Amino acid sequence: MDTNTQEIPETYYLITEDTTPDDAVRLIASHAPQSTIQILHAHDIKHEWLEQCPPHTILILYLSDNLLKQIITQVSGSHCTIAILPHPDSPNAVVGYGLSTKMADAVHDIFNHDTHSIDLLVCNNEAVLNSVEIGDFLGLKPVNIGSGSLFDRLKVFFQQWRKLLVKQPFKITLVTQKEKSISTAVLAISIVEHARNTRYIQELIGETNINDGLFHTFLFSPRSIRQLIFGMFCIAIKPSSKLPEFIGHIKAGALNITCESTINYRIDSQKAQAEALQLSIIPRAINLIPGKYLTIDKPAATQKESYRVQHLPTGDTVNELVTKHLPWHLHAGTDEFRDIYNALKDNATLSANYLTLMVLSTLLATLGLFANAAAVLIGAMLLAPLMGPIISAAMGVVRQDFSLISLSCKALLAGLSLALFFSVVLTLIIPLQFITTEMAARASPTLLDLGVAIISGIAGAYAHARAEIAKSLAGVAIAVALIPPIATTGIGIGWLDWTIVFGSFLLFLTNLAGIVLAAAATFFWLGFSPFTRAKKGLLFSIMLTCFVAIPLATSFYKIVQKNRWEIALSTIPLNNADLRNVVIRRSDPLSVHFELVTNQPPKKEELDSIKKLMEEKIQQPLQIEMTVIIKF
Description:
Elements: E1 11-16, H1 22-31, E2 36-41, H2 47-52, E3 58-61, H3 65-75, E4 81-84, H4 91-96, H5 103-110, E5 116-123, E6 126-127, E7 131-135, H6 150-160, E8 170-176, E9 181-186, E10 188-192, H7 199-205, E11 215-220, H8 225-237, E12 247-252, E13 254-267, E14 270-289, E15 306-308, H9 316-321, H10 338-348, H11 352-371, H12 374-383, H13 387-399, H14 402-429, H15 437-441, H16 447-465, H17 473-480, H18 483-495, H19 498-525, H20 531-570, E16 577-585, E17 590-598, H21 604-618, E18 622-630
Parallel strand pairs: 1-2, 1-3, 3-4, 4-14, 17-18
Antiparallel strand pairs: 5-6, 5-14, 7-10, 7-13, 8-9, 8-13, 10-11, 11-12, 12-15, 13-14, 16-17
Helix pairs in contact: 1-5, 6-8, 10-13, 11-12, 11-14, 11-18, 13-14, 13-19, 14-18, 16-17, 16-19, 18-19, 19-20
């Protein structure tokens, strides 16, 4: 039970090793001048002696970590109270119990802090002052991430990353007090009872309490060097309050850890070996006067185990990771993406709902193109179900899954045929034949459209791979706009206008190739396929995209050249006149339309002079069309 007042005993027992610090004795005497200070050696503390001690006996321990653990184990369950002074060989006690490293401050805390009954973490029946560690964190221990300046964090990381090249994960199985079993592959494990002295860990996992009956286990489980480098670089730049994907966290009251071989571990920096580790909390085991840096709160009424291990490797991924050094590239196991794979397979399956949405979205897009209504086209984009089979095809490409590719291609061909048929029929019904700006916008694709398709493909694949952001797919569908180009192609077929047919269908192929390439690359980056399997599909996608990009590059060059010419013509200096809104239309020769703002109607000689200046400016023959604006 915690006490609210600190009683002054008649005798303080100062427990030391070989030497007695004179300054400690002097400081204790100054705080308790009426009390006796009896100095004992650590070996004098026996169970029999502890049983004979009167209530409220205070043992002041000036010991190394190793002897401290022995004394704490002996004192556990007794009515004695312990206080700890900073010893040169007790760094773990200093951190674990929040001690000041200055002797004067530590002694002051003993006489000014309340006594608390605290929990004790034990590992294989040995008291734990600070932490238990398995494996090598290479300077990347979770409780140290985020400490120091940006330069220091980057320096530590780049000093250690080369060692990762020769590190091999090992399989570990953990069973909690509630019989929760977790098997995964790790590089290292760190176990602490609390983290009240580490600001970063508090931000990472929330409040911790030495008296909540639980301890914290951190599993350092990167799947690849790439994942670790990227994650650690982000943390070094800006430490996050969110647990990194390569670190798992278990909060439990007891834990059994087993490995396929002998476990080499460190308990408070001391090396040890065991076939298994048994960790547990002994509630209210010792009466302690804590240091100034350890705040002891009353725990909540109900303390529950918690697990944040959803990103850790499982299933066949574990078996793959433990057979070799940590790989450069992330690779998810079949068990881990089975749900995503099944969802993509469903998206690629031809169904009545898919065909119905294709017809409705095509009819809506065709009407929107004739009405020149962007809002109607957006509605058609939202209805269109094409994004699903295209993303599924990308997964099939990257995994060389020909059954998934076949399903996706059948759905795409059926949807495309249906869309072209209904857009042609509706075009023949509508008694209009003029090119709206929305049609024209889809008849002249450029490299910019390929860029839109690539970014949309990345977003689409990422949204499918992350269920929590799947709601963003509607935005992706709008961005890439798959249905309007098909509807424009149908309109061109209905009018027998092959320029529109070629341009709009090229835009559709651009979107298709760009999305498949970008989505396949994204799935590969996210680890859904090893490079040996993905390289053929990625190479084919790159070749297809490059083939489509040739006419796009030509078109883009023409647009850039046209823009430069328009800027150049707009800057031609004229006497008593200005050129405005210069627009070049491609014809043979080029046609230039502009507004001529002048004080009086221009004469033929002046017009000839303007035309000559323009032709000299861009080195091209021109015909001019102008609107004269008289300013007076």
